[in-house]
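Table S2 (continued). Query chain:
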Amino acid sequence: MAAGHDCRRVFVSRLASYTKKEHLLKVFEPFGPIHAVVRRKNSGNVAFITFTTPEQADLVVEAAAAQPILCHKRKLKVSLGDSWHEAVQIPLSTTPANPPGPDPFGGLIIKPWGASVLPEECVAMIAALLPYPDRARMERVSRLWRRASLASHRGTTAINLEDWRWDNEWGHRPISTEAFYWMLQRCGRYVLNISLNERSLSSSLKPQVLAIACEGSVNLTTLDLRSVTIRPSALRALEGRLTLKSLSLGRCEGPVDQYLSEITSRLRHLSIHNNTFTGKSLEKGFELETLEIENCQNLRDACISSALASCSGLSQLKISRCPGLRSPGELTALTRNTKVSETLECLTFGTPNFDQSPLIGETEEFEMNFYRRN
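Corresponding output:
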């Protein structure tokens, strides 16, 4: 790095697998470190150590060159932490160029004058048109290109793992934890909608994907989980999420009602498909505007009837392919709920097992009022 730089970090490699930041802070204590971060990698652990001034960082590098610095009987390799080292490590293609050339990024053409001639706004507009792996490579070219690549994520309000931008290396295999973290670190504050898909997730990411998504998206309003199977306990990550208004839920590996009861009070849209949902979490009433329940084998008459009898503000209701419903109690509850009769705009029942003979008068009156209003 040229003289007169402003880098206060040093990059340290050749660490032992059990080396922690406390050990490094103690080793570098004579030079005045103020922060340390250890990153675990398959190829060996590395660390970044931050000092108060660039001069202190230079002094550490010079000292390590003059006499090896030891930690856990290992000679540490110390260098200034430039923009290449600071970039989040993204898996890149290891196939060598044919014929060999100066491009280390597997196909990204880099002109030495590009970073200085093109303004940052122009580079950011170009980056917004590229797949995410190419944006990751841009961050390793120069500081200007890194800033431009980061700026290109500001307009990202939705994350869909089936999006074309995950193409290239990431598109041919399930998305890893590192890649998902990388994305949320850059656009998490702007994201409002997240849609997850089972086919796009690596096996290591599946158990924790919901926790990562919620932690990284502070303004999340819509979450679509219809195409991914989760553990019911993973829904705990949604507790306290005041911004979340819409939840679409698919298969779960167990009962979900005990976890949904803490979430539905803040939701405005709830859609549940192919789930073990019983309706117990809605028994005390709800303020949902839209409720869709489809192909839920365990849905109970008593639970959903009690919920519909005390709800308010419901505008759309759809219940279909739920064989557990064998009486028209839901229609009775809707008939007697005067609040719903004023707000309901769309009603769909796809459950053909009702014996409606005792309630023909009430259901016909409800249908007449409903169609007269709409």
